[in-house]
Structures are given as C-alpha cells and as structure tokens.
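Hi there. Long-time user, first ticket. I'm pasting a complex I've been working with (about 974 residues overall). I'd like to know whether the download I got is complete or cut off, because the file seemed smaller than I expected. Thanks.
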Amino acid sequence: MSTKADVKGLEYIFHPRSIAFLGVSSNPANPIGETLIGPYLEHEFDGGLYPINPKGGEWRGLKIYPSLKEIPGPVDSVIIFLGAPTVPKVMEECVEKGVKVATLFSAGFSELGTEEGKRLEAETIEIAKRGGVRIIGPNCFGIYCPKTKLGAGLGFPEESGNVCFLSQSGASFFYMVRAGASRGIRFSKVISYGNASDLNESDFLEYLTQDSDTEIITAYLEGVKDGQRFLKALKAAAEVKPVIVYKGGYTEAGAKTAASHTGSLAVGDAILDAIFKQLGVVRVYSMDELIDVILSFLYMSPPKGRNVGVVGTGGGASVQIADECERMGLHVPKLPPEVMKKLSKTAPEAGSILGNPFDSSMALFDVSKFAESIKVIASWEGIDLMILHRGLSVMSNQGLTMRTEESRRETYLSCAQECEKPTAIVLHSVASTAEAWEVVGEWQRRCNEVKLPLYPSLDRAANAINKFIGYHEERMKRNAFEDKNSS
Amino acid sequence: MSTKADVKGLEYIFHPRSIAFLGVSSNPANPIGETLIGPYLEHEFDGGLYPINPKGGEWRGLKIYPSLKEIPGPVDSVIIFLGAPTVPKVMEECVEKGVKVATLFSAGFSELGTEEGKRLEAETIEIAKRGGVRIIGPNCFGIYCPKTKLGAGLGFPEESGNVCFLSQSGASFFYMVRAGASRGIRFSKVISYGNASDLNESDFLEYLTQDSDTEIITAYLEGVKDGQRFLKALKAAAEVKPVIVYKGGYTEAGAKTAASHTGSLAVGDAILDAIFKQLGVVRVYSMDELIDVILSFLYMSPPKGRNVGVVGTGGGASVQIADECERMGLHVPKLPPEVMKKLSKTAPEAGSILGNPFDSSMALFDVSKFAESIKVIASWEGIDLMILHRGLSVMSNQGLTMRTEESRRETYLSCAQECEKPTAIVLHSVASTAEAWEVVGEWQRRCNEVKLPLYPSLDRAANAINKFIGYHEERMKRNAFEDKNSS
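Hi, the file is complete. Here it is re-exported in full:
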C-alpha cells in the first residue's frame, strides 16, 4: 500500500511549477548556468526559472536571486550544484521554502568513501526527510522529461517517446540521450540518480512500471540500495513491460570501481544472471548494446523464429554476416530450389552470390531487380526476419557515392517497408572520413524517419536481434506455462 | 628452391612499366574508367597507361586503343573488367603481346559453382600458363602498392607504410585501405586476389615474408588452395613477422557462403584455431578487430605484463572500462597507499575516483593537475601499460566542447607521449552527430600525427591490447624454449 502511494506521489517531481538553480554565476564566462538552466530555456519550460547566487545580478535576462527565500511565490524544485560542505545549510533553506524535490548535481558525498562524505550525505538527507523534501542524487544529473519540458542537457530532443532510462551514471545518462536520440530513440523519462541517497532505483522502477508514457524500461545500474524491494519491483516491471538492464561492475575490478563511483555494493555476477533470466529481464553489457537492443524492441515486430534472410552487397561481407548471425544464435537457412529459381530470374549470376546470404554487388546497378530479389527471399515462408546490409567501403569517391547512394538507400528502405517480415538495416564498413559520415548521417536520418532499426555492424545487429527474439521466446514459454496452469 | 625463385619472381608484378585497361568506355558517364584508371592518374603512375576499347576514342586525355596489339611498345600488366565469356579470347591477346601479369577484376568464373564458370576459369588459366602470363583473380581488385604508385582505389594514401594486407574479398580490401588509412595505418602492399586461380595466398605470403618493406602481415582468408604449402608458408611468415589473420566462414553458414564467394572449401574451425595457436598467428574475427590489433602492433611497444593503469573522465565509464579490461584478460591493479597519497595531492576528491581506474571528471578543469595525476599512476612500477580514455557524451553543446576539447586532447596526447609506458587512447561514447564527428576527426588526425593508437570503445581497445600482449607472451615462451634447447 505504501509503495503504491509512493508511486503516485512521485508524479509531482515531473511537474514542477518553478525551479531554482543554486550554483549559477552572473559571470557569463562561467558555464554552470548554461549547463543547469540552458536546457530549460531551450525547451521553453513554462514555469518559473530562478537562478540563485548571493551576489545577485542577472543571467541571460533572468534575475539572479540572492537566496531561495527571496523568490516570490512557491519553488517546487531546486537543482543544486554547490560544494558538498555547503549543501546541508542549503537544504535547511529548501525546507523553509517548502521545496518538494531537490536534485543534487553536486558530488563529494558518500561516493568518496570518506567519513566526511558519508556524514555530509546523511546530514543532508536527515534535514530533507524531516522537512518533507525528496532528494534525487547527489552526484547525478537529475531528470530529462520532454513532455513536461524538464531537460538535463542542451540539445536533448523536444519530442517525447516511449522509452525510459534509469542511470546511476551521469555520463551514461548523457550518452543514452545523445546517442540514443541520434539513432532514433525518443524518451518518456530519463533519470540520472547517482548515489540514490533518498529516491532510488526501486522508487523510480515502481513509478515507471505504472507510467503510461513508458513502454520500454531500460537501466544502467551499479548496485541497488535494498535488494529485496528491488527484486520485487523488477519482477513487477518485467511482467508488464520489456526491461533491459546494463549492470556495470560485473568483474572484480569493475565492482571495486563501482563502489567508489556510487558507493554500490557488489552482487555475485552469476546470481545476477540467474535472477535476470528468471524474471525475463534482458541483460546487456555496454551502452551501445543497450541502444542496439532498444532499437529492435522499438522498430521490429517479434519474428516467428530465428531464420534470417540476409541481402546486401559484398561477398566478403556476406560470408562475415553469415558467420556473425550463426555465432549470435540466428540461423541462415539455405533457400529451396523453387526460391533459387525465382532468384535466378531477378539477379545476374556474375558478381552475385545466389542464395542466403544473397550478395547483390552487381544487382545494385539495377535497383528494381535488386528490389525484386529481396521480395523473392522475404516472401519465402522459411524466412522469419530480414537483414539488409550495405557496406560503404567500396565508395570510390564522394561524387560517385553521393550520386548513387540515394537510389540505393531508398531501394533498401522501400523494400524493408514493403516486406512483410521484421527487418533490420546494417550500414557497415564505414571508414571514418567526413564524406562517409555525411552518407551515414543521411541513412540514419531516413531510417529514423521511416522507423527502421539501423545498425553499424553485422555482429551488433545480430546480437541485438538475438536478444530481442530471446525475450519473446521466453515470454511465449511463460504464457504457455501460465495458460496451462490456469486451465 | 623453386619456391624461393617464385618469390623473387613475383617482384616484377609490383613494378610494371606499363598497364593496359580492358573494359573502359569512352562514354564519360560510364564509371568503369574512373574506377580502373583513376587511381593511377591520382598517384601519377609514371609508366604507360593504355585504355582499350574496340571503338577507340579518348578517356580523360588518354588515347583509347582498339586492342592490345596496337599499343606501341611492351605492356607488362593488364587489368581486365570484361564479361567472363570474353576473357579467354582476351587472354590469347595478352599472351601474344607478351603481358607478364593480368589482373582479372571480372567475376563470373569458378565462384559461381557452375560448370560454365569453372570451364571459363580453367580455360583462361590454361591459356595464361601456356603463354607465361601470371594471373591475379578473377573476381578481385588486384594490387595497391603506394611505393610503385599502383593503386586499386581512388583516395588511397600516397604514402607507404609497413603493413601488408592479403584479401580474398574485394570489399574487405577496400575497407582495410580506407578505414585503416583513416585510423593511421599505411601499407606496403595490399592485394585483393579473389578466386586465386593462379597466384594464390601462398604465393603472396611467401613473397611478403621476404619483402623488406613489409613488417606486419595481415590477411582476410576464406580458404586456401593448397593446405600443405599454405601451412609451410604461414609457419615461415610467423617466425619472422607478426601475422594477423581474419578467417571468414568459420561457422557452417559462413563456410557455405564462402564456397559461393570465392569457391573456398571449409576447414574445421577448431583445427584452424589449434594451428594458429601453434604457429603464433594472431586470430581475429572481424575487419574492425583486425584494424584494432594492427594499431597496437604499430604504435605500442610490448608491455612487460598485463597490469593496466586507466585514466579518464566519467565514473560510469571507469566502471565499464574496469569491467572490459578484466573481461578481455587485462588486470586493473589496486594502487598502493604511497601512490594514492601522491594522487590525492594532484586531484580534487569530489567528482573524482581516486584509484585505478582514475576518474578525473573534475581534474579536467585543471589540465596541469590532470597531467600530474597521469604521471603519478604511469610511473608506478606496478603498471605495465596505460589506457587514457575520454567520453564525448557529456558534451554540452558544440561551442562549449570545441572550445575546451583542444586543451583536453593535447593534455592527453602529451601525457601519453611523455609517459614511459605503452599507451592507448580511447575516445568513447560518441553520439553520431556532425559536431561529434568533427571532434573525433580532430582527435584521430592528432593521434595519427603523434603515432598513438586511438580506439572507439573500451572493449575494442582492451581486446586488441590483450591479443597484442598475448602475441608477445607467446614469442617469449617460444624464445625461452629455443634458448633452452640450443644451450
């Protein structure tokens, strides 16, 4: 009961009427103001924004108040980026002002492992609890919620989406929003909660499980505050939404580092693995893998099985993708004679590999034939999903490429959209040159537009899809088991 | 004896006095001329260049000859990009003209698996052998040799280097040169040999083992023509130079595809693994991994052990890199009290993780203190090598970043150069935006300039370094064994 009340209770932290920022300088050369308040100006937050500094002055047209209490009217939320030793005193002022939630960007607390750091954190929390102020952090970047225009970083998208990300790490928080957004992900809520001194992963997880704006729950965790409560929350979350977790600190050296980073205690890695499996939580091992897997969940419907049809250019790439698919647990079935016969009508023999993978280096010179070939393969019942790949390494020069790339790209995209199987696109073998990145940028933009998952390498696509399929296989088994038990 | 003669005999294929190109059109809209001859014009090849087309005409100021025999003077080399069925007849003309080596870009031969394809290839080879013409290909892109200005692709670097790459795949050939070059690799010879109908991997490997311009031998192989001879050549090569091999087709699906791609037969993967281990050949599983490993060999001296000192920004990244290092077989040792004491003088506590990994998010605001911290860690005798990492995800906006990035980058680079341990740089968490790629481009350019290996992710750096160290550990064991046996 109390948990449910807490969950409902958290809603207000995403809807502050006004926000004060402590740690802003009136000196325009100091970047802190831009970092803290910039995102709110950028997204045109429609409540009050109050920079605070004892010296007063102005910051980008906003009046700087000397202290919290001098702000006219209520302050629902404060964001604090001050030296740790000053934070308890500031928290007293928050209590006096009737602040509802304080986000502590400041570091220098329990994560240091020092007595002083622990004491400062405990003191701050004690004051906040007594005065009814909830705390996010310290050692964090707080909340990005595009729907209510809360934004922790400049350049974060204004549009909302259905993915949430809970992050104990500030850098991972920024990376998820920036890299995820550039790859087509949009977010309901992204929360960097650092040391979790008050509001922790379980609070947020319980909230997000019930949050109707969130359809996919993802997290970077280094540890949890209350194992029992977290497991309960994780189980409840995984029952209703896909949950994808990257647990940092899974080796001894990593766990030691996590302890210094966010004061987290280690959990045995094998135990964690068993728990995730039992609950149906998808486990990943890097931020990029997390983004890769989210894209499969976002943009692919669950395939019926693991049989993949692979089409693209380059014989070497075809060999490599066949290896990668098999290594990652997908199957690349041989095409039966009737499909091969159809295929031989749409593709020239020389320079192609007729079969699966289908290499169409030459077919690409005739995009309509290429499209026909894709349809032939995708429409065979033995294929459950498609991977269309394109290597950019053979780009002869910019003029040649930009001229021909558009029609190739659009052929891929229209084939992917028309084909009735879940489809992923792989744009691989990209040398890091300005020209190549321009081409990649345009592919990415178009894939985002038509809502297709784009992967930068064969192994990353196959790995993400494998985890996506694994999730749905597990769900089906679970549902079958429940059906059986309930009948 | 005959082998040695063959090796010497191959030298001439890298020194043609003149080259004829079959398959060029006088129509400027046809890109084949640019693809075939363009690289030779770009690198100012100083011998004769002769486009050939029965219709005659001109291509970019070069006279198009109607046939080989009408070219005045000798033609040492021909590059053929014609339909497979016409190739045997053209080969007769090559024989008549006294051509020494013919590179067959054309596909449509044995790799199709058809009787007709096999027959055409056999017939072509038979004519060539009879007439003393050596063949590279078919189904290939031939030779890139910057020293003698032979260039198979537009935009390939003019400078020579000490790395060779043998590739059965044309796309992998292009990717190695383009992506490898952008990451700072320069080449002695790069050879795409496709179906290996005449000159094959063993011929080239024997040559490259003795080639004084080549210090590191690398290859993408799908299969070999003569297993016994290849193993002998591989053993001889690995005895004198590092050999790094990516074997495509290591799964069943991959092997099936390789058979269609270059007509290669599968070798059991476990057998291959055992052979590579025995010979001291470094095995990799993707083109990017190959490039990663080459960079360690090129730009790092062999570390004395596996103890890595990790310095960079971002607590989450530090946890993640500690995990990745351990997972990939490196050790992240704990710093002893005396080193910790020194470190505490150079870095602010808050926002940093004092230890190894050392997280310097705050220290970065004072680059000289950051440099001091790196020196403290690197100079401890318990550290064998250093990884300096930088995450770009916290970039607030372009202005902020470009302004501060230069001093941060140069601090990293000067620390890396001054520190007496082998050092790798990791630039991770790069969202794919135009601004981010600009920053990355500048990091890459500067790392290439000062000859430091730059990796795009923590796991890729740790993996490459692990293989590099593994190679040297193996060499040391081998040498110790030989010393013992010879004493």
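A couple of notes from our side: Confidence is low (pLDDT under 50) at residues 1-5 of chain B. The longest strand of chain B covers residues 385-391.
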